[in-house]
Design goal:
This protein is an alpha/beta fold and about 280 residues long. The protein has ten helices and seven strands. About 45% of the residues lie in helices and about 20% in strands. Strand 4, helix 5 and strand 5 form a beta-alpha-beta unit.
Amino acid sequence: MTPQSYDVSMQKMFAAVSDLYARYWGDFFHFAIFDHPGQTWEDALAKTHDSYMHDLCVADAKSILELACGRGGFSNLMAQNTPGDVLGIDISESQLSHARRHQRPNLRFKQHDIMNVDDLGMTFDAVCFLDAACYLPDKHLAVRKIRKVMRPGARFLLVEWCRHEDTNAAQQALVLAPFMKYWGVPYLETRARYEQFLDDSGFQLLDVQDLNDRVAPNWELGYQNALKAVAELSIGDLPGFIWKGMTLGSEGIRLIKEQFPAAVYIKVGFDSGCLRYVFFLAEAV
């Protein structure tokens, strides 16, 4: 995937799969962090959001940016918990068509490419980026541009899928390569590389955590939901999930079909340890 084609690929993918994900996963496409065995997914997700807002100092923020805001659920939640303004941006107009159902005086959404985030002409004192940096064609450049729209002292929360530093050739070929193909991911970075990107771009790293053990119930839930969809859906149901604002035809059906093997590869990737779910909290200096 080249930088020139990435924006089109992302719009097509989410035009095809957004409603499928919403039906079998919900409006929040990121993971819930579990505190203890037996905790419900709903409770874990609510506490995860509370923790993220605390880390971002949302209550005291004057302006907040959510990158890859998707269907707008977390942007809306932040807007409920701050007197400041919240902007959610996403490259996918299909995602934003759902996000805009959230109506608040201090909340707005905009179609915008994260790779051009520095063109927004605004600065922020809190920025969050959940589970979507993997799609970017140049992650280092993106981090540098994100820093340009942040005021000194602003908080940056990045939660991301990473490749384990010790991933071997078999894991790359048999697990990560098909997962990335089905999800439109050009490449995966490691935790250490993201730490270097943050340092190079003018951030002070406040906290970093590998959350694999605490998010394990999510990928089991995703796998079980994929099995449920296989049992419930027919091929004739699939066109109904495609966003009507973009004509995709057979390409849209292919993109939907590819989500089912992707669910298997994601689970294998986490269970084998070559996929990591990593939390980074940094401050602009």
